[in-house]
Specification:
Layout lengths: L4 E3 L5 H5 L10 H4 L6 E3 L5 E7 L6 H4 L3 H20 L3 H13 L3 E3 L14 E6 L2 H8 L3 E4 L9 E4 L4 E3 L4 E6 L21 E2 L14 H7 L14 E4 L15 H11 L8 E4 L10 H14 L5 E4 L12 H10 L6 E4 L12 H15 L3 E5 L26 E10 H5 L5 H9 L3 H9 L14 E6 L4 E3 L2 E3 L12 E3 L6 H6 L14 E3 L2 E4 L6 E4 L6 E5 L2 H21 L9 H10 L4 E2 L10 E9 L2 E5 L18 E2 L1 H17 L7 E3 L5 E3 L3 E9 L3 E7 L2 E7 L9 H7 L6 H6 L8 E6 L4 E6 L2 E2 L5 H4 L4 E6 L2 E6 L3 E2 L9 E9 L5 E8 L16 H7 L10 E3 L6 E9 L4 E8 L4 E4 L7 E2 L2 E2 L3 E3 L4 E4 L13 E6 L11
Parallel strand pairs: 11-13, 11-14, 12-13, 14-15, 15-16, 16-22, 19-26
Antiparallel strand pairs: 1-8, 2-6, 3-5, 3-9, 4-5, 6-7, 10-18, 16-17, 18-19, 20-21, 23-24, 25-28, 26-27, 29-30, 30-35, 31-34, 31-38, 32-33, 32-35, 35-36, 37-38, 39-44, 40-43, 40-50, 41-42, 41-44, 44-45, 46-47, 48-49, 49-50
Helix pairs in contact: 4-18, 7-9, 9-16, 10-11, 16-18, 17-18
């Protein structure tokens, strides 16, 4: 041939299909177990995507914070975005002309369901014959014909591919899928499995499920019960779309309406289908019905898009790749996309196949779409018999929200579950505070007493594996019955995980670093299943589940977030992974912390255990749930209302208040400086008596701190308590639990600030996430010191003034209390030149007090254990809001600035404790009392009253 070719590195067939599955040093025949039946191909029957490079690298844009990304995308507009980040149109046209000269057919919207355009940087090419393949790639195509199983034939190539010189093709994707046999990467490794359930919280007898909207109610979805027309959710349904069995006379829309009526819902939402001409009714229909059932039941007034991708017309093979590409580029532009499908291939990092898939998710981010991906249901082994921990590496993009699976237990189902009935349930019903504490951190809002009530009780990792003798049942390692999760070593750890303080490493002998997965989780089965439409959409199945339910549930939640964002003048969330990690740091009650269970299921083929009709050997590598982020449940499951409040607060803060100084700033050398001239609280949390050192420029001071109480209030508990349905009995149960010592000091702007605990310097690991929101935690292995401001900054919706602020109060003190909010001039509490404690300051304070809903300036506490919500009027953007607590029983009052309070043992007593995003707790007793700092918990919310006030 006269055409000159450039070789493509890492473009072998095993680079396309077998990373971390097959030994890359072997050849295709050995990897696939082929001993005969291979010959030069006489056909190709395959379509391939050529993915071009971008005009500009979007990495700097996507590395900006959320608001900066949104502002840049808005300024560029759609045309400007793709002019900058699509392919060079001249190059695109030149390659199309070259393909024409090679007599190869380009597939686009005129002749197929494929997406080919300069904006998408993609040219799909039909390869009919082996000669076509050779003309394009300069490589001979091989064909395997299975002599025993018709239909198992496939074509492949040996060695690397090439392309004509100068094409600048960065990625390749073949619309087909298969994987080689797994190699054993841990020879000689085996474990003996314990008998019975392999994880807790999934052992209740299989019960009929709940309607998806009822599961959404357990997660406190913010628009639950409101008739709000949310935006479209795009569901990737490659090859199946809305296909129904032949002979069905009702339309898909009619059958969906009947399903909604069956579960007690109705709405105005309609179904849009892309690529219907290529869809085929198949076994994928069950996945489709579950996706549709979950989304439609939660948001019946929202539209649904079904993305069939290439479908099965011609040589098309309906890969998930093509469905995602269609959801991004077909013009319907769903703001939120959920995928329960994945292509089988496992692509080598650095290969053109890996690059093609990775850039799809970049396109979605640039298109301002939020993408959710079900983690998969194969546990830590992900149904791959290589002995290692595994993920679907083609879809673990840092621009995707990865969703794991959990099992919710009501009290009734928990009582039937032998894995928790004699432990957690019995202890909780007996009033054991340690057990109840763990349950509250996981989302419990009331003392468990009524088994008949549909009440969220406990949540564990979804894991239904059960071992009886040498048989693995309840679904085995080769089928879908446990949430996947772990670490993706094909890429670096994303910045938002590094900022969170994570250092993900695979839990197997290779111990490779990478991206932690999942990001979040939701119910997937176990003790709570979903009522879904049957595969053919006729009637219902009450036993639906899997991470394929958890992903569309999160998508349904996120279109509610988008509706709330629009109502408050904000754009769609789009790519927002970083916001989720910020939310978990500054308002941890936004997530229910899943601390129970595991997903261990790594294995190799052959051995004494039987799973799904195959003999296997478990190798025992997996991941456990635990406090905070873990590689099974991610950040946790949503408290939808609290997460909505947090996300809107973050969005308005980043969008309008970026110039407000952080609490601390990096000094560029691993240390920190004060971000402003300010008064700062130093709050100690430690299991033992410890010495705290505060190092300020050339000066230092220190203090001894008592150990924190066993159930000293956390930010999670304080924020949870500011919900109207939080049980007063839970509040009272954890009363009088002392915190560590509290100090307060003034710092000048730019002054060096460091903290030591005991003899160890403390690290402010998450400070870059929390510092813009008023606090930073310095930590060692023996304790934590929170550095926080005693004032709130009124970061109002859309930077508006004369606004209404929401005040939420929870009282855990027995005295009669009241609180006043007032405006100060700086972060030290100054009013007209008067400092806290100066003569005349009280009069100045009263002149600056905000008016409450009652008409006065003092808000009474709601009483022991109780909750109250009220408002403040005439709050302006950027106001610095301080507080004064009055104990009307004792006649004493206290400011958030210690220098105005009483002196004990030569020190002014600080009475205010920061619990995260605009949340504080007060100690109401002279001299510091029991130091529990929860006598009155106060939350200020400057954004929720805007728009329709859906979040109030």
């Amino acid at each position: 041939m006269s055409t000159s070719y450039d070789p493509i590195t890492n473009s072998s067939y095993l680079d396309f299909t077998g990373y971390r599955i097959a030994d890359q040093s072997t050849n295709v025949e050995a990897a696939y177990g082929i001993t005969s039946g291979v010959a030069p191909a006489d056909y190709a029957f395959i379509n391939v995507a050529l993915v071009l490079g971008r005009v500009q690298d979007p990495t700097p844009l996507l590395g900006e914070n959320w608001a900066e990304r949104q502002q840049t995308l808005a300024q560029l507009g759609s045309a400007g975005t793709w002019a900058a980040y699509g392919a060079d149109p001249n190059q695109f046209n030149a390659i199309e002309q070259s393909l024409s000269s090679l007599h190869l057919t380009v597939l686009d919207s005129t002749n197929s369901n494929y997406v080919s355009s300069a904006q998408s940087r993609t040219i799909w090419v039909e390869l009919n014959t082996a000669e076509d393949f050779y003309k394009l790639f300069g490589t001979t195509l091989q064909q395997y014909t299975d002599p025993h199983h018709s239909g198992n034939d496939f074509v492949f190539w040996n060695g690397n591919l090439s392309l004509p010189q100068g094409w600048n093709v960065q990625g390749l994707w073949f619309d087909t899928e298969n994987v080689p046999q797994a190699s054993n990467f841990v020879p000689g490794v085996s474990v003996t499995l314990a008998q019975g359930y392999q994880s807790v919280g999934n052992g209740s007898a299989l019960q009929p499920g709940l309607a998806p909207q009822d599961i959404a109610a357990l997660y406190n979805f913010p628009l639950q019960g409101l008739s709000v027309a949310t935006g479209m959710v795009g569901l990737l349904e490659p090859g199946i779309g809305s296909a129904l069995p032949s002979g069905q006379t009702q339309t898909f829309q009619q059958l969906l309406t009947a399903y909604l009526a069956h579960i007690g819902e109705s709405g105005t939402g309609t179904v849009y289908v892309q690529g219907a001409d290529g869809q085929v009714y198949s076994g994928a229909s069950g996945e489709r019905s579950l996706d549709v059932g979950v989304v439609s039941a939660i948001n019946p007034d929202g539209n649904i898009g079904l993305y069939n991708g290439s479908g099965y017309a011609g040589y098309a093979d309906a890969s998930a790749f093509t469905a995602l590409q269609s959801a991004i580029w077909d013009g319907s532009n769903p703001a939120v996309i959920s995928s329960s499908f994945a292509d089988l291939q496992s692509m080598m990092p650095g290969s053109p196949f890996y690059a093609a898939y990775a850039q799809l998710f970049v396109d979605a981010a640039l298109n301002n779409q939020t993408v959710f991906k079900a983690m998969g249901d194969g546990g830590s082994g992900n149904e791959t018999a290589n002995g290692l921990t595994n993920l679907d590496y083609n879809v673990t993009s840092p621009y995707t929200v990865l969703v794991g699976g959990t099992s919710i237990s009501s009290l009734a189902s928990a009582q039937q579950d032998p894995t928790i009935s004699g432990t957690i349930v019995a202890s909780a019903l007996a009033g054991d505070p340690a057990t109840i504490w763990q349950l509250v951190e996981g989302g419990l809002t009331s003392l468990p007493t009524d088994a008949a009530q549909l009440q969220y009780f406990v949540e564990a990792v979804w894991n239904q594996y059960f071992v009886s003798g040498t048989h693995i049942t309840g679904g085995g390692y080769l089928v879908n019955f446990t949430s996947s999760g772990g670490v993706d070593p094909t890429q670096a750890t994303p910045a938002y995980q590094l900022d969170y303080g994570l250092s993900p490493v695979t839990a197997d002998p290779l111990a490779q670093p990478g991206r932690g997965a999942p990001d979040v989780a939701a119910d997937a089965g176990g003790n709570t299943n979903y009522i879904e439409p049957n595969n053919d959409m006729v009637g219902t199945n009450p036993y639906g589940g899997g991470t394929s339910a958890a992903s569309p549930l999160w998508a349904a939640l996120t279109v509610q977030f988008d509706a709330i964002f629009h109502d408050q003048g904000l754009p769609n969330l789009g790519y927002m992974n970083d916001l989720l990690y910020i939310a978990a740091v500054i308002a941890p009650a936004s997530f229910n912390d899943v601390t129970l269970g595991n997903n261990t299921s790594s294995f190799v083929m052959g051995g004494s255990y039987e799973s799904d009709g195959q003999h296997i050997t478990p190798t025992g590598f997996g991941f456990n749930a635990g406090p905070g982020y873990d590689y099974v449940s991610g950040l946790g499951t949503p408290n939808g209302l609290l997460l909505a409040r947090t996300l809107t607060d973050i969005a308005h803060s980043e969008m309008w208040f970026g110039a407000i100084p952080d609490v601390i700033d990096s000094n560029g050398q691993g240390g920190w400086t004060s971000g402003a001239d300010q008064s700062l609280l130093f709050q100690t949390m430690s299991d033992a008596v410890t010495l705290v050192g505060i190092h300020a420029g050339p000066d230092a001071f220190g203090f001894f701190s008592a150990a924190s109480g066993s159930y000293a209030w956390t930010s999670q508990l304080a924020e949870q308590s500011l919900q109207s349905d939080f049980d007063p009995n839970l509040v009272i149960l954890f009363d009088k639990q002392g915190q560590g010592s509290l100090a307060q000091a003034h710092f000048a702007s730019g002054e060096a600030l460091a903290v030591s605990i005991g003899t160890s310097p403390a690290q402010a690991i998450q400070a870059s996430l929390s510092s813009p929101f008023g606090f930073a935690d310095f930590s060692t292995s023996t304790g934590d010191v929170r550095v926080a401001r005693p004032v709130a900054i009124a970061e109002t919706a859309d930077d508006a003034s004369d606004q209404t602020a929401i005040v939420r109060l929870r009282q855990d003190g027995q005295d009669t209390l009241s609180i006043t909010f007032y405006r100060v001039d700086d972060l030290n509490g100054t009013i007209n030149g008067l400092h806290p404690g100066d003569a005349g300051y009280q009069a100045a304070l009263q002149s600056r007090a905000y008016q409450a809903a009652s008409g006065g300036t003092s808000i009474g506490g709601p009483g022991y254990g109780n909750y109250e919500q009220t408002t403040l009027s005439h709050v302006n953007a950027g106001d610095l809001v301080a507080m004064q607590l009055a104990n009307n029983s004792s006649g004493n009052s206290y400011l958030g600035f210690a220098q105005a309070n009483e002196v004990v043992n030569g020190q002014h007593v600080a009475h205010l404790w920061n619990y995260g995003l605009n949340t504080w707790g007060w100690e109401d007793t002279y001299g510091g009392g029991d130091h529990d700092y929860n006598d009155l918990v106060v939350g200020l919310d400057f954004t929720s009253a805007s728009g329709h006030g859906w979040l109030t």
